[in-house]
Design goal:
The protein is mostly helical. The protein has a single domain, classed as Orthogonal Bundle (Tetracycline Repressor, domain 2), CATH 1.10.357. Helix content is 80%, strand content 0%. The protein has seven helices and no strands. Helix 2 packs antiparallel against helix 7 and helix 5 runs antiparallel to helix 7. It is globular, with a radius of gyration of 14 Å. The N and C termini lie far apart (30 Å).
């Protein structure tokens, strides 16, 4: 998660921070899938059995999303009508095919196009 955090912190606008976060998480997941299959299998098992570590990962991703959305709202980049918690959950759900190890394996052939398209869709839905 620290690599994703670094990517987010390197961004300027909330839009840029969101793009960096999503790209970083997807890239790191794919790298893990190809470089160390055993660790990937453990991550997939943790996700499927909802281990504490997998739940903590999910919470930290949602916290980052919330931070970015809040920044975007404060700067006027993102809409403010939808409740923050609903927005964060919806974004997280839309990202799931590319951030959850169980889904990522099935979606490798869609990368990077689908991930970029989902990012664009999310950002358009956040426009004021």
């Amino acid at each position: 998660m620290t690599e994703a955090r670094k990517a987010v912190d390197a961004g300027g606008s909330a839009t840029d921070r969101f793009r960096r976060m999503f790209r970083s998480i997807t890239t790191l997941g794919v790298a893990l899938f190809f470089e160390d299959r055993k660790i990937y299998e453990i991550a997939a098992l943790a996700a499927s059995e909802r281990w504490g570590s997998a739940q903590a990962y999910s919470r930290s991703l949602q916290d980052m999303i919330q931070e970015i959305v809040r920044q975007g709202r404060e700067n006027g980049e993102f809409e403010r009508k939808t409740p923050l918690d609903e927005t964060v959950r919806s974004i997280y759900y839309a990202m799931t095919p590319f951030i959850d190890p169980l889904h990522l394996e099935r979606n490798l052939d869609l990368l990077p196009d689908a991930q970029n398209e989902v990012t664009g869709l999310i950002l358009r839905s956040l426009a004021p």
